[in-house]
Every structure is written in structure tokens, then in C-alpha cells.
Amino acid sequence: MRIVVGVTGATGAVLAVRTLQALSSLGVETHLICSRWAETTLKLETDLSLADLHRLASVVHRVDNLAASISSGSYRTDGMIVVPCSVKTLGAIRMGLSDNLIVRAADVTLKERRPLVLVVRETPLHELHLESMQALARAGAVIFPPVLGFYHRPRHLEDVIDHLVARMLDHFGLSMPVPRWGERTVCDHSNPESSL
């Protein structure tokens, strides 16, 4: 399996890190593209460098390389995830402004009718954000704001992150071992300090 992973400068760099780790553990070939601002956000939000992030991917593409393999629909992939996805990138994808490889690869993913998951990281949302989301949803993209779930009673931030990443990867037919609705959770609810 081969999945393109775009990383923008929106907050939520840890979601990109965990997504790449999960895909690697599942044996998925990943093609990584980082925007110019992704490196800045990664440094602000984690202890990782861009080189550390690159090491999690199978192949790394420069964001300005519009001649990359993934810029063509003839290069077969199983879809793309943009995690996190800035509203700037969201708007560019909506308008088909393929001026960088993240936007071009997303455009290719849509036109080839492959899964495109956009992990839009912005709040609150105004009308133009919502219009872009609606237009892209109609075009076939999955709009996936990383909204926290609590029914699995997470005990740590890592539990929340893993649950979000697992739900994202569900859209590619991939499965991570996390608590699901209707299943017993892994939390120890007999300990009052382990739940809210």
C-alpha cells in the first residue's frame, strides 16, 4: 500500500508524527511532503527536527518539486492525507491552485477518485472555511477536523492522539488497535484517578 502524507504549518504536528509512525508500523509506503511552515510548527510543538520526521517516511519529496512522481495521476497511490491541514492549504486545494506539491498531489488524488483525508486544524470556523470544506466534501474529500472523543475514556494525551489517527486511517481501510465504540476500553475504571 502507498499513501501520500502532506504536512502543513497548522498546529497539530504531533498528529503528523503519529500518523507516519502508524503507517510505518502497518507496512505502508509513505510519500511525505512538508510545507515551508511545517518545519517551524514541528520545532515549536515537539522535540523533533524535520530530519526526524523525514526518517519516518519511505520517500520524501520537496514541496516545490512539481515534477515529483506523485504529481501525476499515472503514479498509483492508495490515497492521501494532509495532517494537519491549514485553511490556506484547504482553500488552495478547493480552488485547484497547484502551486506546490501538497496541493498538486491532493488535486491528483481527487481527480483520480482516490481517498483524500484533510485533517483541518482551525477553530472557530468562518463562512469561507465552511464553504471550502463543503465544496471539497462534495468533490469526494473527507473533512476530518481532529475533534476529541471521550467515549473511550482516554487517560493520557497519547490515547486521544492514537484514537484520532486510528479514525483517520479507517478511511484507507487500515486498522490500529484502539478502543472502539461498543468495545471495552483499556482504561482501569476501578481507579477513580484514571477517569474524569
Automatic annotation (TrEMBL):
Binding-site positions, dimethylallyl phosphate:
151, 167
Which residue range or ranges hold the Flavoprotein domain?
1-171
What positions does the entry give for FMN binding?
9-11, 35, 86-89, 121
Q: Which InterPro entries match?
A: Flavin_trans-like, Flavoprotein, UbiX-like
Q: Which reaction does it catalyse?
A: dimethylallyl phosphate + FMNH2 = prenylated FMNH2 + phosphate
Identify the domain of life.
Answer: Bacteria
UniProt-recorded Gene Ontology molecular function terms:
carboxy-lyase activity; flavin prenyltransferase activity
Which UniProt keywords are given for this protein, alphabetically ordered? Flavoprotein, FMN, Prenyltransferase, Transferase
Q: What EC number(s) does the entry state?
A: 2.5.1.129
Pfam families found in the cross-reference section? Flavoprotein
Note the coiled coil stretches, chain numbering. Answer: none
State what this protein does: Flavin prenyltransferase that catalyzes the synthesis of the prenylated FMN cofactor (prenyl-FMN) for 4-hydroxy-3-polyprenylbenzoic acid decarboxylase UbiD. The prenyltransferase is metal-independent and links a dimethylallyl moiety from dimethylallyl monophosphate (DMAP) to the flavin N5 and C6 atoms of FMN.
Q: Which family does it belong to?
A: Belongs to the UbiX/PAD1 family.
Q: Please state what the protein is called.
A: Flavin prenyltransferase UbiX
